[in-house]
Amino acid sequence: MEIQTINKLEQEALKKSGTDFTRLGFALFFMIGVLTFSLLNNGGISNNMFLAVAALIGAYMAMNIGANDVANNVGPAVGSKALTMTTAIVIAAIFEASGAMIAGGEVVETIKKGIIDIAAFGGHADTFIWAMMAALLAAALWLNFATMMRAPVSTTHSIVGGVMGAGIAAAGFGIVNWATMGKIAASWVISPVLGGVIAALFLYSIKKSIVFQEDKVAAAKKWVPLFVAIMSWAFVTYLTLKGLKKIWPHVVEALNMIPLVSMEMTKKPTLMTALTLGFIISVIVYALVKNRINSKTTTLENSRASVNTMFTIPLIFSAALLSFAHGANDVANAVGPLAAINDAIMSGGVSSKASIPLWVMGVGALGIAIGLALYGPKLIKTVGSEITELDQIRAFSIAMAASITVIIASQLGLPVSSTHIAIGGVFGVGFLREWLHVVDDKGNTVEEDQLIIKDEQENKEAYTAELKTLEEKSNKEKEDYTRIVELYKLIANEKRIIKSTKKNIKKLKKVEYVRRDAIKKIVAAWVITVPAAAVLAGILFFMIKGIMS
């Protein structure tokens, strides 16, 4: 028996190692392909080897973004069983790459978020190139380590830390804009708290308006179209502001070609424009969803499981749209430093903005998709099922938080991380479950106790109304007096039950639905991301400088 067990373990180990080698082989093949393409494509310029190595590092960084960051977009949908792992990876890969290639923009900031003063390089292109290479490699290595540890971290913070550390190594501490760094540090708290609060509020709203109702189907018929319409409004607004801002002039030109449509040409979309577009789409979505639910409600059971199924299709759309916006907005984390190196090599100088060649954008888009396909499942499982248990309603609330929080924060000028928002949303719904599912000494949950109070209150009101009618009756009979005495006793009894149940709610025992070890690991990874990437970038800068000098 022991020999059979050992043989099974050996077979599993061989199978796992074979899969790991296959993944590594595909990753290396992609990186070598990028290196070769860069050498052949840029063979006629000086420092083409340096650019090829930078392209190799950019490909490595893009794969790590796909492996770590994209999980936040599809993890809740997979954890809630709205999507299978394979379907989620296919959808995310297609929409991430599409977002990067279609709406990734033609120009990128070489120094993300202005965290260091580019003038401190004094126009020395070589020093700038070394710093960008060190920043890119440091961020990629840190993301690789975080993915191995199953810790979802912010890729933006990783590259910010890398740029800061390489900048300090190149020109000293004075190069850093510490006010900006202070705002970024503040986002470690702002992002998850905002995401958690908004996700919890939406989940509680859905529970209160649908799940806690006796006739769930009737309640769903009324409220689900509204919730889905709000979601579509938020997502179209989010996508317009964040996913289309870099190609907005082209979008306006296309829209103005439609009869009866006339839009003012602006460099990027305003909040009012985004909200208006979102509202128009939400009205259409409301009508479509209401019509679909009306035709479906006769076949639905009066259960939470049936209500959950109504949120499956919106979740699939949310995963796709979040992936598109992420690809459009965050691809700069992968290709920004690479574009900066390419620009510095081509122009021989240092500039604050650089154009993105099509091949550089392709490296970012394809790398993110490949990284997601090869190594994304680890983090998707962590986000979707290893922090708290998710169903479609909870996952829907997290997706709502992801879009609404970014809209609010961007308008208030608050620095936020999409990763921290999504994970904060997962924490938010988990802690709301704990708050609602604490149990009293009788084993009842808050939900059950609140339903008891609601029922007894209704009984008390009915008895009180009957009592008032009898007392106002002018010609009372013996049966009326008997009933009045009985009603006084019934009302007193209802008051005792309500009072006792309220006391029970105060003596509740918390049931933990959020894994505390997951919270500690993830929060620790968030806190050390910027300093870890910075230290690593500083070391790498000195190594590169030593090799090149």
From TrEMBL:
The keyword Ribonucleoprotein does not apply. Keywords: Coiled coil, Membrane, Phosphate transport, Transmembrane, Transmembrane helix, Transport. Pfam families: PHO4. The keyword rRNA processing does not apply. Residues 446-511 form a coiled coil. It is a multi-pass membrane protein. Its main location: membrane. It is found in: Membrane. The chain crosses the membrane at residues 21-39, 45-63, 83-108, 128-147, 159-179, 185-203, 223-241, 270-289, 310-328, 356-375, 523-544. GO terms for cellular component: membrane. GO terms for molecular function: phosphate transmembrane transporter activity. It comes from the Bacteria. GO terms for biological process: phosphate ion transmembrane transport. PANTHER family: PHOSPHATE TRANSPORTER. Belongs to the inorganic phosphate transporter (PiT) (TC 2.A.20) family. This is Phosphate transporter. It comes from Candidatus Sulfurimonas marisnigri.
